[in-house]
Amino acid sequence: MTVDDSPVLSDALRHALEVSQRGVDELLPLPDWTRKLARSEATGQPLRIKLGLDPTAPDIHIGHTVVLNKMRQLQDLGHQVIFLIGDFTTLIGDPSGRNSTRPPLTAEQIKINAETYYTQASKVLDPARTEIRYNSEWCDALGARGMIQLAAKYTVARMMERNDFHQRFSDGSSISLHEFLYPLLQGYDSVALKSDLELGGTDQKFNLLMGRHLQQEYGQEPQCVLTMPLLIGLDGVDKMSKSKNNYIGITEDANTMFAKVLSISDTLMWDWYTLLSFKSLAEIAALRREVEGGRNPKDAKVMLAKEITARFHSAAAADAAEADFQNRSKGGVPDDIPEVALSGAPLGIGALLKQANLAPSTSEANRLIDGAGVRVDGGTVSDRGLKLGAGTYVVQVGKRKFARVTLA
């Protein structure tokens, strides 16, 4: 790599650059980042690396952990990572990628979500080495005078260059004035924290660059920005999203998490390795060569599933999830399944599935039966009109849902 006026690259610096750029979409400007890393190496002063998250929902999925993983990698290089909870900016709502104004959250909702976010993020970051900040610390202190002074540092014309604002304006959709404050305040967070690098998804690029602009306006050395790609979900098509039901929640049980990772395609697996695994790029490359040389790709997928499951549960839970998956694949019944007591025998199979929480509705239960997705005591149910008398049955829906139903 050639960088104008770049320092001599030591082995440690080369390694830091490799870690920094692993799986990223963009790292801007790379020459500046190289110089920051070199200065840190020479002085022993860690760089300040910022990630801000708005607690707009109580839970996160593993797609959200792509950026957290990058933070952990930089944390392991010895730098100071700052997990910034946007309790003030959440009152505005991030307009990134939105075609309408976000509904506001109450302060109590924000507080509850913020606590959950940090607890879940701590499954990736090392809490003992993570600086936790809330941007209400400095945003509240700005006051009306400070907000006006901040707003004077950016023009409406530049703000309207932002894709989502431009598109909404062209479509005649409303843009509330307070939405212009969001990128300004996110940029001001970088000023308050004196950050050297800010991370975000590709949809955050405008906001991240705002931080560079405002730091220069306030006489600081501008931060570099690092954007990570959005993780493709289980369907292999769209980005991971709860609304598309192609996600793995980091609070899901170990067996479900393990099985969901195994369900992704052999091709998508390598993207997940790059973005989610803590294995080195050299280890991943070696494993990929083994698969291309004839090793069963399922072996590599099992390794990934166990790594991800262990991160959010434990190594023992990951081992147990693997054993559970193997048992199910052979048609076995897991050792630990829900016990359900129902009354009303004889009871129709559709109603039983709904009452046992194995299907959300009787119509969905019938659809599952038509698709040969329902088993009772190991036998596939094909008759929607089946009625079960009093007794105890092992009922299975799909590959992962089981219940031991006692019907009276």
From TrEMBL:
The EC number(s) given in the record are 6.1.1.1
- CDD domains assigned: S4, TyrRS_core
Q: Name one GO molecular function term.
A: ligase activity
What enzyme class is recorded for this protein?
ligase
**Where mainly located?**
cytoplasm
Q: Which protein family is named in the record?
A: Belongs to the class-I aminoacyl-tRNA synthetase family. TyrS type 2 subfamily.
Record protein name field: Tyrosine--tRNA ligase
Q: What is the lineage of its organism?
A: Bacteria, Pseudomonadati, Pseudomonadota, Betaproteobacteria, Burkholderiales
What is the primary gene name for this protein?
A: tyrS
